[in-house]
Structure formats: structure tokens, C-alpha cells
Batch of 3 targets.
Target 1
Amino acid sequence: MAFERQFGVIFTNPKLPVLDYSTLDDNIGIGSLVEVPLGSKVVVGIVWSEGDTKFDHSRLKKIIGTVNKIKLEPDFIDFLKKTHAYTLSPIQSFLKMAVQNLKFHKDQKMPIAYSLNSSNYSQITKRQKELISYFKEQPQRIAQYKQIKKDLGVSSSVVRSLENKGVLSKVTENKYKQEKIFNEPITLSSQQRQAVAKIREKYVKNEFQSWLLFGVTGSGKTEVYLNLASERIEKGEQVLILLPEISLTVDFKQRIMKRYGALAGEWHSQLSLNERRKVFKNVVSGHLKLLIGARSALFLPFKNLKLIIVDEEHDSSYKQEEAPIYNARDLAVLRASTLKSRIILSSATPSIETWHNCRLGKYHKVDLPKRFGEVYEPRVTLIDMNVEETPKNSWISVPIIDQIKISLEKKEQILIFLNRRGYAPIAFCTACRISLKCKNCSTKLVYHKTKNCYLCHICGYKVSEKTKCVKCKSDENFIPIGPGVERIRDEISRLFPDALSQIFSSDSFSKGEKHLEDMDKIKSGEINIIIGTQLVAKGYNFPHLKLVAVIDADMGLNAGDHRVMEKSYQVIKQVIGRAGRYASDGRALIQTWMPRHPVLQALLKDHGEIFLNTELEQRIEANVPPHGKFISLILSGRKESTLIDFGKELKNQFYSLKLQDFEIFGPAVAPISRIKNKTRVRLLIKSNKMTKISQIEVRDWLKNITVPNNIYFSVDIDPYNFY
Ligand SMILES: [Zn+2]
Ligand SMILES: [Zn+2]
């Protein structure tokens, strides 16, 4: 006879507490995904703890049952708890990312497919015969019913009649149930072999290890980590590869799918619900051995995950800026530590944090050195805008125009980089000179000529191109000030009317099929001039690209935070790294008003490691992260005074903790003081040492803050943005 037990069940809604339920089912335990009654509804929750014995069993509601027999592993629950402790965001919001809206309880049917069993049959109709020859042409003689109907137009009765004769039989297919990798092994260069060997040598079963795989663009880092991934997969283990901008890295996906076939899957926000559900199940069951995913893939409950790879680990898109705020690169390291497995961070321009950890000996480092004749890097020239002239109404200097001309004659591809979407960042009323501002945010509207509108890049608010001035009601034109990629394209079309150009930005770049077409045009060299935002820096491969022109290298250097140098260096280095990967005559021209600036000098002299070391030392000296820590507290709400008052109260509470080595700044109105109609106020906690003990004290305090109902409070650990 089964005994009744009771458990605490957690939900994906942070507002719901852990609630107790009872069950007689022996298979239910901590980690089980279950359905339970809640009010008048049935909801999915996760068995989180033993029940609170104070409650009377008989009055508890019963767990309805498990969902697809899914049970989260203890290491995953441990990871969620540590993630919560680290980010201070509710555990439920992370759980939600894993099981959100998957609606397992309304399990969808697998597509119906049939396979051809035998060729022994008698007395068949013409239609049936057609169907049999159709099956003979299919791979493995299997076809989905939906496809058969589409191709042959046969009714289900024809199929069923053959099924009754035993000619066809139904298969429930799971495409991730494949046993082996079907690829021919790839020959590695001697540097790649050495890098693989170095990481492999240090392998210890069930030991947590972090690696930095450091090598310039084109040095073949991917082959190194795929090699190590294959090793794990062949042992039946699972591997996760995180990429920035996954929905767009078509190249990479094709490469992976070809090599790993059905063993590989992908995970990102653009997948259909059905597809996500399939991937989820196969990740949990362990059938899916390799997952390439965006940052949220980290929150999938893998059965047997043994290797995590974070490609382009420096990329800021790993940081999720909306609640729950987290950095997937850092959490990936945490995940590997709970799994006692390895993690490989790969980059040509590693983050200062990762560099710091290598220097401290916390991370191992493996270099992929460049060798003459194998990896090419472009020749860099700085264009000093203090001495160069640009034609009137132009943003492209004469030396760049000359180089483009030469490149076009040689049929080389050209990339012009300006990290600014749209046509112009500001527009002024010709009559009264005020600029167009967002209705909901304290930002200026950006003119998008191709979309015929003025757009807020923060909240998406837009007004038509034909808008009247809010102040003087004039409907005369607004004057656009400054360049965006669309304006640069206009200039290029004027200067080189015969050249084919294309904008490469999140506005212009379509997704799915059309995207592949656009990409093909670029990769085949049909497009002569690409004009791109920082999207081009994210791991794309342009085989025909020889010349890169950076229009405004100083733009990023004007921000005020401690990562300014690092971010500018990374983005420009990644962009110019696109040029001449396959030939020795790649060139990069960089327009700047500050040619002596250390970032530009490091780019000019190709002093990557020196730059990282100097930058790290300067940060340590200035007492900013990775030395010590920053924690931002962001308050938002209707009234500024209420926010400031609450901010002051927080500050007083903080002082009463009497912590040494800590400072607190603010409350101050945020640089972008209003977003989506909410006023914003910030505080910054800075620790000079951040010892474990004080860290716990700060965290305990932050966790227990009581926030008034009219204020939205969020905590950003290791902030990337300070606006
Ligand atoms: Zn006006
Ligand atoms: Zn806005």
C-alpha cells in the first residue's frame, strides 16, 4: 500500500508562494514536473521541497499527476538556487524560462508517419501502387502522412488499406533518436591539434574547469571546440554551445547540422512552440546530444550535460537587461561548476573579467597563435579627421573614398561600419529648432527614412515622417542631424552609383528564408558594399571582404562607464577582423578625431594582449571591476520625488549595515530619466574588496527589502549599462 506524502510545489509565477500538496504516487519526488489544482485552474509546477509537516495532510489538495514523467536533476535545482542567490532575481523567473508556455499537459500528437515493410503484396489498386513506388523513393522508405497527402493527394483510406494489408506500418518518429555522428573527421592544423591536446590532457572526470580559448578571428577556434564536443557526444554525453544572436548565425547552424545531423538541435525565441517542446523533451531525455542556443538555453534541464561552450564570450548580448537581469556567460560558468564539468569560453577579444580570471589562475588559457600564411589580419590605417577633409554633407573622408574606388575596380567587397541604426540620430524642426522626442521616454527619436518614420529605439514609439512639430505646429520638414547607416548608404549611392550596396542592421535584416537569400548575395560577392551596424561584428563570415572602413571610431569612447575602452576595442577589432580572412591584402581604415587614444593605438599596432593587460591594471588601480564589484539598484515609478525618497531610505538602511570597504552612490535620476512613461532613479553600490562575508550581508539585505507598491525595484549585479 502506498503512503501519502506531502511536498512543496513551486510555480513559474514569482507572486505565488511555494504551496503544499499531497500525493500517493511513489514516482513523484523533488524535481518532478507536476500538474496541480490551483483555485479553479490546473497549473504546472515543480516539486521543490518536502512538505511543511505543520499542515494537516487530509486538508491538502492532491497532485494530479506528473507531466511527461519529467524530473529535474538535483544539479539543475542546485543551479537555479545559486542563480537566484547570485542575481537576486526570483527563482521562478528562471524556472519560467525553462518550462514557460510549453503546455505539456496538452501534449500534441507526434506527426503520423508510415514506413514500407515489404514488397510482397497482391491485388492492389492503381492508387496503392503509386503510393508504394512513392515510398520506395523516400529516404529509409519512411514518409509523413501530411507529406504523402501533399505530394500524391491520396486519401487516408488508401494509406489505411495498405496498413491493414501489412504493407505499411505506422512509425512514431523522434528525429533526435540518432545514434552516431555522420561526419567525416576534419583535419586540424598543428596549432589546433595542440590546443585540443592541451585541453584534453587536463581533463579529469567530474572536475569543474574553465578554459579561455583565445585566438584571432579565423584562427579556427570553432574546430577546436567542436572536436572536444564530438568526444563528449561519442561518449553519449550532452554538449551546449551558446552563441550571441543565434537566430542570425545561419552559417554556423548549417555547419553544425551537417556534421551532427539529428543529434543537434537549436533553441531560441524564434522557434515554434511545437519545436521548442520537442527540443525540451529531447534535452530532458538525453536523446539530443548537442544544443546550440541563445542565452536562455542555459535554463534547460539537461539530463547529462558535460561540456558548455560560450562562443564570443565577450559579447554584450549575453547580458539580459530586462528582468530577470543576468549575464549568461557568468551563469554558464556557474552551471558548469554545479555539473562539475568543463566550460570553454571562446573569443578573439576576451572580456576583461575573463582575462582577469586567467591571470588569477582561476581559468586555464589556451592560445591559438597565428602563423604566417594561415591566418591573415588586415593592415590597419588610422585616418586623422583633424587633418583630413570630408566633402560638404559627407561623412566619408577622401582617403576612404579613394580606397573604395580602388577596391571596386579590383572587384573586392567593402564593409562600411557605423554603429547607428536609421538615417539620422536627431531631427530638428526647421521653424522652431526643437528636436523630436519620445512620448514615453526621455530620448530623442531616430529618423528612419526607409520606414518613413521617427522611431524610439528604447520603447518602439514612432511617429510618421509627416508629423507636425509638437511645439510650433509647423508641418515643414525636420532637418536630420548626424549620420546613421541609411544616410551613409545614400552617400555611397551618390558617390558610386554603379555599386550594389546593402544595409546590414537589425532593421534591414529579415529573418528566415529571405535572410538566407540576403546572406547568399553577400557571401557570393554580388553585393559590393555592405553598410553595417555592430550586427556585422557577431561572427559572420564574408569570404570576399577585403576593405573595412570604420566611420566613427570615437562614438563608443564617449560613454562614461568603466567598460568604455574594452567595449570599443572589442567591437572595432571584431569588425576589422572580417576583412581579408582568406588573403593577405585585407585593409582596415579607421576614421577618428583621437588617433593617439590607447584603444586606437592598440588596434593600429595589433597589441591585443598588451591592451588587455594595461586595461586590467588600470581598472585595478581605479578600484573598479573586475577589482571589487558594482551592484546597481534601479527604482522606477510615476513620481520622481517618491523614488528619490525611497532611494534615500535605502541608502540609510545600507549605512546602518556598517560595512567596511563599501560605498553607495545616489539616489540620482538615471541618465535616461524616463523609459516607457516611468521615471527612473539609480543607486550604485561599489565594493572595493567584496569579501564573501560582506557579499552575503549585502545580498541578505537586498533580498529582504520591502518595496512600496508604486515602485518597481530591480537589482543589476555586475551592470553593463548605466543609463
Ligand atoms: Zn517647431
Ligand atoms: Zn520611447
Note: The longest strand covers residues 662-675.
Target 2
Amino acid sequence: MKWKRWLRSTGQGLCLAGALACALPAWGQPMGLPTLGAASTAELSPAVERTLGDAIMEQGRHDPTYIADLDINQYLTRLGRRLAANAPQPLDQTITVFAVRDPAINAFALPGGYIGVNSGLVVAAHSESELAGVLAHEIGHVMQRHIARGISQQSQGRGIQVVSLLGALLAALAGQGDLAMGVAAFGQAAAIDKQLGFSRSAEQEADRAGFQMMRKAGFDPRGMLDMFRRLMNAARLNEGTGGGYASTHPLSIQRLSDMENRLAEEPPLSARPDPEFWFIRTRLALIQAQDNADRQRLQQTLRSDARAQQGMQRAAALYGQAWLDQEAGKLAAARGKLAAAQALQAAPQLDMLAVQLAAAQSATAAVEASAQAWKRWPHSQGVANERARALQKAGQDEAAVTFLQAAIGQWPQVPDFQKLLANSLERLGHKVAAHEAMATYYEQTGALPTAVEHLQQARSLSHDFYVQSSLDTRIRAVRERLDTQRALLEPYKKK
Ligand SMILES: [Zn+2]
């Protein structure tokens, strides 16, 4: 799936969510199209929405613009869930936030509680509250079920896209057809329509819910207003080029003055910023800078930030410079800047860079540095990832297995650790266990048929009766999950 082209060509990702919801009213009456099942006129249930979101994410993870970075996604998801936990109403989806490499200032909600944030949006934010403001607004849409349902008053004619996606999903679950093709076809169909977007009242509802979340979660609600002002200016500058956040979330003067009025009644709130925001923002600026010209511009920005700013912002600018030095092979300079940053602020990102710089010396130095980093940041997935990789590069697969098993105990739902575990098990010759870990990886990323294949391979390699019967139990359990998903999607099957 061309995730980027898809999101871009719809103008923005939210269009996609819009396309999905817009599709619903048309399900009953397509002309010259296959007859649709009875359930097709109903709104998506939370379970169907989740299944759909998982399938889109499974494809999206393969897209080159998807930023597969545990550290960044852990930070963003933590921020999103902190807001969601303070929502005025409970959500029927678990929020998962991920980053996409794209300089356009945008964010988008997918079905199933998934929220994508463009690198450009985080880089454009001047404070954590500004980033939180956009996330809170998106979560407001999720809370109000705008994605699955809301847009029923909008125009018709897109039903077939959702139905064909659900149909492709069903075929893939049955082991037939190509889900990637189905999702891609859906994306292209969705791209045809560029006029989607949320209604003004939906926007105001999301703003209101977002405001409440921000205040309760301890963020300054002014961040939302500041960010939306910035977005509105960006939209004005880019007028005519299409796309951009403003075209899916109409940013009217009315909306901004509503926010101003609400803020006038609020006592000022001094937010306690998470220093990690500045390091994540720098990381995303680095990831976003693709060519030499980009890097030079970024180098300039970082240099002037390191001079003009103080405290954690200055530390983050030094960190960015150290990162660029390391990449250019100027290791001594990189170490100097890293030390200067560490003198100002402690952050897991700094210790992760220290591990990478140690790796340039020797694999054992990296293992040593990663042990120290892990001692300081035992809840950082990014540091855990560095530690596991350092052990693997030093050939310490036994230690890596022990470490990864503990990491999986802490984060049972993070598939990346399962894949790393499988690599070490494979090298140690534990082929059955390696296939089991890969099966868990595919189960967690939503590729259930592939998970079954790995379990069957594990079963055929095992000679132990107990292992075999426990594998049989797992195979049955995954097949039952597949059956449940099929049953969920069955009503959308083409007749
Ligand atoms: Zn909106």
C-alpha cells in the first residue's frame, strides 16, 4: 500500500476517516453494483472498526513513510493515552499514536483509535501543549465516534469502497485474495474524493472535548488555540496547493473565537512540560531532513537554538547537533556535544545516542553503555531496543533472550520485541521457539494467517509431545480469532 500517496492524495488522512464514515449511508443503494448484505446499512460497530483499523495499520507499517521507532511511538502514545484517560466520556477504542515522515503540518485519525501524526506537525509545535492540543482534538473525534458514524449526514456514493475493503479483508482472512491489494484499491478510491471533512459542529464538539481533556490532563489549553492559529496561517500561506490540516478540519474564525471565549473564563495553568517532548521533536526533525540541503538548514536551526535557548530546549538542540556529527563520522565532536547536553538535562534519548557512539568504539563498549542506560531508564522501550541490539551485535544472544523475555513481560503488546527475540532464538538453534515468537509477532500486528503458518512450522519441527499439544492449543486459539473476525465481517460480504 502506498500509505503516503494515499494519505497525501486524499489531501490528508482525515479524509480517509471521513471517506469511511461518509460511505455508510450509501451501502443500501449502490446502482449496478453487487448487492450488499443486510448489516451494510448499519454503522460500524466498535469491533468492526477495530478490525478495519488493525488491517489498515498492518499494511501501513510497511510503508516507507511509517516511522518504525519504539521511542517516538511510545512517547506519542503515552501522550495520547494521558489525554484519553481524561476525556469527558469513555472511549470505545484504545488510542495508539504513531508518526509518519512527512513535512506537511497534519495529523489524521484512522478507524480503531489509531492516530497518525506527521513529523512536520511535531516539528512545527512550539510546546508540548500545542502538540497535545492537536491530539486532544483528534481524540475528541474518536470519543464522539465521528470516524465510524458521524458523517452520515454527508453525501453518498462512497459505500462501495468500504464494502470492497471489508470484502478484501474477509477474503484475506479466509486465506484467499490479497489484502494489500484491497487496502490499496480502497485508498485509491478514497483519494478520488477531496471534499471530505468534518462538519463545523463536529469540529466544535471535538474542540470542546479536547479542551476538557487538556485541562484535566494538566496541559495548558491555550496550546490548542496557539497551534490552530499556526495551522490557519499555514493554510493561508499554502492556499491553492490543497491538502493540509485546515481542509479537513475547517478552521473558521468562529472556531478560534469560541476557543478564545472559553479561555477567557479559564484561570491560567502552568503546565509541567515533559523534557522528552523536545528530544522527540528533534528526532523527528532529523528523520524528516532527507537531503543535504535539509540537513544544512536543520544544522543552522539547531546551532541558533543551542545559542538562544536554555535548559531542556538547549539540551535537545545540542543532541541534534551531536546526532548529525555522529552521522558525519565526527565522533569526537559528537561526544563533546552529547556531554554538554547531558550536563543540562537527563533524557533516555541522550543515553540511547551514547550507546550508539559507544558502538563505534566496540561492541562490548556498547553493551556496557546500554546496561547503564537501562539502569537509568527501565521504562523506555527505545532504551530496551538499544540494549537488545547491543547484546545481539556483541554475539550475546543468550543474554539477549533473557533480557527480551523480561522486556516482553513489561510490554506484552509490543510486537517489535518478539521479532528481536525470534532472531536470537534462531541463532541459538531454538527453531521451535523462534517460530513461536514470530507467530506472536504476526498475531500482534494483525496478520493472523501468517501467525498460523509459523505455529504450524513450529509444530512440524517439534518432537516433544507437550510442546506439540500446547502448539495445537495456540493454533486453535488463533483460528478461533480468525473465525470471530470472519463472523464480524460476514454481513459485509458481497452476495
Ligand atoms: Zn477536526
Note: The pocket of zinc ion is lined by residues 137, 141, 198, 203, 206, 249 (CB under 6 Å).
Target 3
Amino acid sequence: MPNKQGKKKIKKVCIVGASGKLGRYMVRHALDRGYEVVGVCRERSVGKLDAFKGRITVVPGPTNDPGIIKKAVAGCDGILTVLIPWRIQQYSSGTAQAVLDHAPAGARLIFSCGWHITRDGQDVYSPGFKALLKAMTWFMRFIRVAEIDDQVKACRRIFASNTQWTVVRGSSLEEGESQGLPVWSRHIGDPILKSDMTRRIDFALFMVTALEDDGLIREAPAIVGCKTPSALAFK
Ligand SMILES: NC(=O)c1ccc[n+]([C@@H]2O[C@H](COP(=O)([O-])OP(=O)(O)OC[C@H]3O[C@@H](n4cnc5c(N)ncnc54)[C@H](OP(=O)(O)O)[C@@H]3O)[C@@H](O)[C@H]2O)c1
């Protein structure tokens, strides 16, 4: 589906989860666009942002801490949030709630998640995908590594909010040079998504580009790399 370019003027953005791989790519894209950048990451991960020293402001702390988020998002026109389900601590839903509660009115809110999130139940998943997701959700919780279902809860809260949100649903990811802006569809099962692969740098590009794309407000685009066979075949 073509991206409609919108009009929202963005000057200052907050990147919540800035020290991860996706987060650091987003910092790069945001700086390339000339945005003022505030990054939030766990205290022990601040060093992972050393490459950007002097060019961004870092607010250290857990991303699900409302006080940290309130401080970090003040004055921001856009907030890019990496929703991650690690540990058994409601980290995704806590992070999403803090952003929803403290984002300045009218700010563009962009969240990341995976294809397993469905907004309207119209996504079509293969039986293998559904079985694997169910098993992984149970197993990761059992070994107390991750709460995949908490990411689902986080997204339900976002979908129900009346903010200017976009939830970007990433396919499987790989590293590598940028191939350009991914293509997207509203629903898993669309043949354009069949290749199920996106460069992580381009996932970040889609998130940052979405800040100024009003056509993506209250959408949950499922993305795939623009040079993958399915994207080339069905574009
Ligand atoms: N990986 C995939 O194949 C895939 C596929 C589809 C969608 N996605 C989505 O892409 C986004 C990022 O995925 P990614 O693979 O690229 O990961 P990533 O960017 O490397 O992000 C990992 C994040 O998790 C944080 N983290 C790690 N362990 C943690 C812990 N115990 N407690 C709290 N935070 C912790 C990291 O923070 P520190 O820097 O502080 O460690 C970092 O911000 C997520 O929204 C995910 O749902 C991923």
C-alpha cells in the first residue's frame, strides 16, 4: 500500500529503548532528518549510545517508569517506542502506558512490535505460526525470559487510546545495508508480505518516516522489505 505523505512538522523526538539495535538505527535516522533527539535506556546500557555523545540527550532508567518517561517526552512532537517483552515484569504494557499517559497532546506515537499482534482479528496466520507462537509464549513465560502476551496487552491499550498512534508490525529481521522504505499491508496473509523479511535498519526507517506520515495515524502496518521477492511481485 503506498504511503501517503502527511504534513505533521516534527522537531524533537524521544526514542524509548534507544540503546537496542532497532533503537540505535532509529537514533541515526532521526539525527539524519535533523530532529533533536532524546533517548531513554536502562542505566547500564547508556554506554551503547556513546557513538552519539554530544548529539543526543540521554535519560537513563527503565522505560516502564512513568517518572522517567514523563521527563523524557516533555516537549516532544514524536515518540518512537520499542516494545520489548523481556522478563516477567509487564515491561511492554508498562512502557506503553507510561508513553500514552505522558506524551504531550497531539504528539505522534510510533510503537514497534511483531507480526503476531493483530488489531482487528482479520490477520491470517498459518497453523504452524499459530502453534509456534502459542508454544513460545508458554515456554518463554515458563523459563521467565519473556512475556509475549504482555506485548499483546500493550498493543490493545494503544489501539484503544485516542492518541495519534501507529503500531508498526515487523516481519522477521536481518542485518545489512538499507534497501529503502519497506512496503506494508493492513493484514498478515496479504501475498505482498509472504517473504517475511525486513532489514532492521529499514524497520527503523519505517518507524521514523511514519512520524511525518499522517496516512499512518491509527494504522497497524505489517511491513516487509521493499526488495524482497513478495514485495517486488505484488507492489
Ligand atoms: N527480533 C526480531 O526478529 C523481531 C521481529 C519482529 C519484530 N520485532 C520487534 O522489534 C523490536 C526490537 O527488536 P530487536 O530484535 O531489534 O531488539 P533490539 O532493538 O535489540 O532491542 C532490544 C531491547 O530490549 C532491551 N532489553 C533487553 N533485555 C532487557 C531486559 N531484561 N529488561 C529490559 N529491557 C531489555 C534492550 O535494552 P538494553 O539496550 O538496555 O539492553 C533493547 O532496548 C521489538 O518491538 C520486537 O517486537 C523483532
Note: The beta strands are 12-16, 36-41, 56-60, 78-82, 108-114, 164-170, 173-174, 183-185, 198-199, 222-224.
